[in-house]
Amino acid sequence: MVQTNIAQLEIEISQRMIKLYNDRIGKPPSQIICHFFDTEIVISLENSVTQAEQTLLKGGYDSLAEQVRLYLDKIIKPELKNLIEEIIGQPVLYLMTNTNLATSRTGIIVVFNQLPDVRNPESIPQENINNLAD
Prior knowledge:
This protein starts with 5 loop residues before the first helix and ends in a 22-residue tail after the last strand. It contains 3 helices and 4 strands.
């Protein structure tokens, strides 16, 4: 089996997430940015809010729109976890998601134990930046 590189993993995660979001909520994000950082993957989804959520927001039902999104994320999260584990070949320790309905962006952080087995591990930023506020 040919060993992949980080860019290929990032592309595969992005493509499979587009399909997952389209299949599950009927709306693929318009853009996905996916990057490995040490033992984490940071993913940003643009235009990830559904038409139904936007309609609820415009109608003044912000709380209901937020509740809908919480349930959608709860339903999608195990599938997203399985998808990433399958692609990187190791278990996910934590998977955190948050969607900002006002900006229609979703952020996902995935944490795992070790770097994936790739042919270019040096291309993954491994610096641990602490206390960015300092």
